[in-house]
Amino acid sequence: MPIDILMPALSPTMEEGNLAKWTVKEGDKVGPGDVIAEIETDKATMEVEAVDEGTIGKIVVEEGTENVKVNAVIAVLLEEGESADDIGSEKSSPKEEPSEAKAEKSGDESKSASAPAEPIAVDVASDPDIPEGTKMVSTTVRVALRDAMAEEMRANDDVFVMGEEVAEYQGAYKVTQGLLDEFGARRVVDTPITEHGFAGVGVGAAMTGLRPIVEFMTFNFAMQAIDQIINSAAKTLYMSGGQMGAPMVFRGPNGAAARVAAQHSQCYAAWYSHVPGLKVVMPYTAADAKGLLKAAIRDPNPVIFLENEVLYGQSFDVPDMDDFVLPIGKARIHKSGSDCTVVSFGIGMSYAIKAVDALAEQGIDCELIDLRTIRPMDMPAILESVKKTGRLVTVEEGFPQSSVGDFIANKVQREAFDYLDAPVISICGKDVPMPYAANLEKLALPNVDEVIDAVKAVTYAG
Amino acid sequence: MAARTRKSASKKADEHALLGSIPAPAPAKFSKDEELKAYRDMLLIRRFEEKAGQLYGMGQIGGFCHLYIGQEAVVTGIQMNMEDGDQMITAYRDHGHMLAMGMESRGVMAELTGRIDGYSRGKGGSMHMFSREKNFYGGHGIVGAQVSLGTGLAFANKYRDNGNVSVSFCGDGAANQGQVYESFNMAALWKLPAIYVIENNRYAMGTSTKRHAAQLDFSMRGVSFGIPGIQVDGMDVRAVKSASEYALDHCKKGDGPIILEMMTYRYRGHSMSDPAKYRTKDEVQKMRSEQDPIEQVKQRILGEKMASEDDLKVIDKEIREIVVDAADFAQNSPEPDASELYTDILL
Question: What is the pTM of this model?
Answer without folding.
Answer: 0.90
